[in-house]
């Protein structure tokens, strides 16, 4: 059923294309194209301006292109050869049977795939159902699962308006707005039943029957199913259940989590998919454990406690944040209003049901926690870095009173990034030459990455400069467009054309603007910062991007302070803020900056992955020792960083003012005494050889470890199929060979 509907979408589009271009329809409906080396030219060539207008949506641009333009391309031999070569590569990829997982864990069968549940998925900017790190990680998880041949299906929600869009007014204040997603012109397909009607599942939400339909997104060999309540036969309020990502109040949140968890399991049942493992990526999907239990009780007639162990054995859980606000909790009254008709189906009393999500049993006012439910109902749990595993064990000791902290059953698998997605094609081409054309399939091999030393300094540096120039051009375009929309002074708009300089040391800072991430730490001593950035001989420039949650007033104030700083006459051309951060902007940033800045309060950064993306592009991290950087940072015998810099002291303190003071001083000192001098130590040809050596160290020490091929191999051997753990380690360095 599902494959036929996907083929129908591609066939419907191909009918509009000249015969030589028909394979473009197949490629457009599978996001595999977005991590190929030809991803830039394939669809952009059709109409570069329309490509920008449609948000890099391959289906939309093929729909919009005139037949005259398409016939021009159909007689272009170079373009036809490109399509033919890419179509052959795609067909080979999709048909591949001898994959890493087929050799290492053949018991993971396509008939019993891993079901990966997440509230957001960041696959590509043309599918805006993500907000930030959690979604990008989920998208990369699916991509590497596809590459390694791991049988997997994703389960999420299709949001009518996705996450909010961002614009800044003339006072630098973030304004939030939303746009409808054009589902019928996106690379997604509505699943239909044998009668040609949308396949739906039913949910009871606050005594109302809600119908939810299912859309399919193809991510290489992995299918992602997204649930959507925006149907005419639903109550108007229910149509908006899947309206916004992380929008609305607690009622909206719990309703969405019912759709994701309970609806997700029912959708898989309706599709005839029987997972071997349910992977809950964060607690938003924890209600799925209850629906698995309900179905088992319905099938067997047994009690909840009789089948509890079986349910737990099929579920695993990844927790992503030590920040309390990141763990959803709901009042008993709210649980009553959503589940009073549900817990009898589990053969549980109200008290027994509430106990599943209670940190402390016996307290009638104890809220129902989604993370608590997941920890109780899953056989395995992991944090997303070694430090985060430690923090999580301490955080959840209350659930394991009979165990010491180090015995709390929460492990860790450090996050990674999908190398083909985040590595600039210009550098991928360089890796083809010096590491071998199979480098993408050997991302975990440290011996291969050691060959980075063979790349001539001038060649790596020249390509890096091209990428930096591209980033600066993109930043100028975005800033100029934003100033025009705000109605800024004409001179300020024109000044955008001279913003930033590719010869200047360039720092990037892009992430969610939450107070604990300290987006304005570099401004703590504004005069000292100004002196660093406005140095006549060795200037520094910085590019900011990121959003504050609509309800986060302090996060918005941080952005406003940055925007005010941007207007300082001494650094007017040295500071830029790119509005409406998305995957495309993120790619340009991580591929073009010299230094990636990350300065959260310890130990609140669970992992972080943006700095990992920088490494694949030769960028260098300057970060607090938190999250993944605790594992990535390498210091020499002199105590200085070999592959980047560590901000502040490796110490945790509850005194935020003290930590901010220590870290800001450390950051200024690193810039003044190490980073700036190293960058401007250049030879007569303008090549900073010692800097380039650190670029190479950043690549070869981090790339083999912090990629999603390694991460997925860890999930397979440690979580999905732990019985193969003893076999995988010797093979791990040869993933995909």
TrEMBL record:
Q: Which residues carry this modification: N6-(pyridoxal phosphate)lysine?
A: 613
Name the reaction it catalyses.
[(1->4)-alpha-D-glucosyl](n) + phosphate = [(1->4)-alpha-D-glucosyl](n-1) + alpha-D-glucose 1-phosphate
Q: Name one Pfam family in it.
A: Phosphorylase
One GO MF term? glycogen phosphorylase activity
Protein's UniProt keywords contain Nucleus: no
- Domain of life of the source: Bacteria
Q: GO biological process annotations for this chain's record?
A: carbohydrate metabolic process
InterPro entries recorded for this chain?
A: Agluc_phsphrylas (IPR011834), Glyco_trans_35 (IPR000811), Glycogen/Maltodextrin_Phosph (IPR052182), Glycogen_phosphorylase_DUF3417 (IPR024517)
Write out the entry's keywords from A to Z.
Answer: Allosteric enzyme, Pyridoxal phosphate
- Which ranges carry the DUF3417 domain? 17-127
Similarity-based family: Belongs to the glycogen phosphorylase family.
Could you tell me what this protein is called? Alpha-glucan family phosphorylase
* Source species of the chain: Dendronalium phyllosphericum CENA369
Q: Tell me what gene encodes this.
A: glgP
